[in-house]
Structure formats: C-alpha cells, structure tokens
Amino acid sequence: MSHHPKSDRELDGISRRNFVRIGSVALAGGAGLGGRAFPAAAGKRPGLFPAPSQEARIQSYRTLGRTGWRVSDVGMGSVPLRESTVVRYAYDKGVNYFDTAEGYGNGSAERAIGEAMPHMDRAKIFIATKSRMRDGDSAEAIVDRVRKSLDRLKTDYVDSYSIHLCSTVAALSHPGYHAAMDQLKAEGRVRFTGVSYHGPGGGRDDSMADVLIAAAEDGRFDTVLLVYNFLNYEEGDRILAACKANDVGTTAMKTSPGVLRYEPLDPDNLTERQAAYLERLARRGQSRESALERLEAQTLRQKDLYERTRPFVERYGLTTEEQLRLGAVHWVLQNPDMHTACVAFTNFDLIDKVIPLSGNQLGAAETKLLEECRLALADQYCRHGCRACGASCPHDVPVSTIMRYAYYYEGQGYEKYAMSLYAGLKGKGASVCSDCLGDCAGACPHGIDIQPNMLQVHDLLTLA
Ligand code: SF4
Ligand code: SF4
Prior knowledge:
Shape: globular
Bound molecules: iron/sulfur cluster
Structural class: alpha/beta
Number of helices: 15
Largest sheet: 8 strands, parallel
CATH topology of the domain at 61-257 and 325-357: TIM Barrel
Distance between the termini: 45 Å
Radius of gyration: 22 Å
Low-confidence stretches: 1-46
C-alpha cells in the first residue's frame, strides 16, 4: 500500500461565525474515541465511513506471525477498561485478540477481562499481557507478577507475556525476564513472548525502529506492539518488514495520532473542562486573572491547530470528531502486514462503530481526507517513539516522552495519569526549556517547533 500523501491541498475557509460554532475538533485519540459533534457541518455529507451496526461482526482474521494464531484485524486494547460487559460484547462480535497490561488501572483492566472470562471460550481468544522490566528485577519476582496477572485474568495461562515499554535494545536481553519466561513456558503458563515500545524514556534511549527491529531479528520474541498511524508510519513500515521477514506477529496501538481540540474561551461561559482547569489552579493559589491567562495561552495553541483542520471538516461534512478517528483506524486496517490493530473499547457504541471497519476497504474520499489531514498536521504531531531530535538537547530533555504524556492528557483524557508520569521524570521535565537558548530549533525533521511546544506542555502537565 502507498502511504505517500498526494500533493494537492485545497484549504478553503469558513466564516468566523462558523469557526466559533464548530467549537471543537479532534483529529484522533486512541483511547476513548469520544463523540463530540461538529454542529456547523452536521448532516452535510453522511456516508464517508461504514455505518455503525449492532449486527456487524469481524470480517477478517490474520495470522499472528509464528504464533500461528488467526487474530481479528480489530483487536481490543484495554488501557481505560473497567467494565467486563464491554469485553463480552467485543467477544460476541468476533474480536479474539485482547491486549492488556499489569499496569493498566493498577490491574483493573486485567480484572475486567477476567470477569468476562467465564463468558468466553478460552481456547478461542488470545490474551496478551505485559509488565515493565526494571533493572535488577529477578526471575522470581517476574514469575510472581505473572501469577498475579493470571489470577486477575482468571485463567491458567496467557497467550503472550511481553516486556512493556521497552525503550532500549539492551533491555531486550533482560535476564530476569527470559529466565522467568523459560520457567513459565515450561509450566504452560505463558505461550509466547513479546515486546512493546511506547517511546523513548529519555533522550539517550533507542528509537522504536531500533528496538523493535532488533526484537524481530532476535529470535526470542514472537510478537511486537508498536505505534502505527497515518501520520506516523515510516518507522512502523520498517518494523513491519523486519517482522514479516522473521515471522513475528504485529499488533498496533495509538492508531490515531494525538488529539486536536479547540474550545473557544469565553470567561463568562466556560466549558466544563475549562472550569475544572481554573478550579485546579485556584486550589493552588493562583488568581483567576493569571489562571485565565494560562488558559488563553493554551486556547491560542489549540486554535492554530484547529484552523488547519477546519477546511476539511467543512469539505467532507464531518459531523463528529469520531469520523476522523474511525478513518485513522480504518487506515491501519488496510495494511495486511499489521495483524491486529488494538482499539481501546470503552462502550458498546464504540464497538458498533469500529467493527464495521473490519475487512472493509478504505474509500477514495476517506483516503483523501486522511491525506489532507496529514498535510495540515505534519508539523504539529510529535511522533510517538521518535527520538530524532534527542541529540540536539544539551539538557537531555526527553521531548518525545513529554509530548506523549501530553497526548495521554489531551488525546486520551488521562489527565492525572499523564501528570503523574510527568512528575515521575523527576527534574528531567521541560521546565529547563524556559531558560534555554533553544538548541533544538530545526532539529525535528517533521518541522515541529519544539521549544514553544515544550513550554506549553510543561504548563499543561504541572497542574495539580
Ligand atoms: S519533536 Fe520531532 S524529532 Fe523530536 S521526537 Fe517529536 S517528531 Fe521526533
Ligand atoms: S528548548 Fe532547550 S532544553 Fe528544551 S528541548 Fe529544546 S534544547 Fe532542550
């Protein structure tokens, strides 16, 4: 398949009145795929995407590399999962690949899958779970963690157990992990192994392609979980090629590249989100005036991004932001080398919208829409897993990681989680950017202006 955008870019305008009325737009957001409306365009041109259906079932199953499993092209991600009924509903639609992790909701996601387990035929589903491997984690400790996952999942075995958030090639050889997997495989508790990469943890970590191509060629790993979407596929395509050559199973996450929201700021008529933001600042002792200033700075950034998207929102008659997100998932499904694309289902409605994409061909209008979106936003979206600007920063600020946390906050709505991750960087955050001469200027091959982004994101992620 070709991923290259076409050159035409007819960006037409809409009136200021409509701009304000539309109010918000989101390009994507891997988790919730929320459904706010675009009122100005409502009803204009329906039918870009397959219609939601309660009857639709998975239409395509692909072989997950050397595991030999035939997995549904749409898999289920579970970061925000808390409800077992959602798992059951996805299973009833033919989804048979369930991705989870010990750390999702401190075990809550695994527990929700476990609660659904009695409803499912265990032999017909692939359960993939994972945990972080820290330096010094012993085989014994890892075996103990896996047993706890099995308890939560209410199963005797998991189909795969992966190194989660693996950000260096060296970490692929974690001795405790491999010793634990040898033992658990011998006991029949784990069938396959894998690796997930979410982004470099620091400026000196390896890139997604470095880590996952090494994993594919290593021989000890049966599956990989990678970031893959219509704005971030260059590294992914190289990884997929390596996986194909080595018969490694491929699974996608972050299929929708970030979020783009615009909420006009009217101090006398704040949205719920804006009011909550001001409240948090007030609790920290900030005056309303300075809090509004911060909010205004955020709003201006959103507005700039929004203005780039409004032409195609209009042209394609998009009625909900979900359509863009569904298009992004649909795009990933077109690549047969990606065996399953995990979507974090949070409710039945979302499942009814995504399942009709299974086995369905991307139409010309959708393709064009995504191409225009890509052109408009190419220099705005920090690619998860990228570290191309890493060497440019004298302070070793992990730009890609910090931008990813902002994506969790803005794109996925995990505000507290994102802020706690950022706080966990312990002095390696972007506060240093305010006193820096900006050595990173021009370092992003995608044209992202790093310093102002870092300053805004720092502001976003340091609110209590
Ligand atoms: S700012 Fe650009 S170079 Fe830096 S991590 Fe993001 S996409 Fe990569
Ligand atoms: S502004 Fe300075 S400290 Fe911040 S990422 Fe760029 S080079 Fe590093």
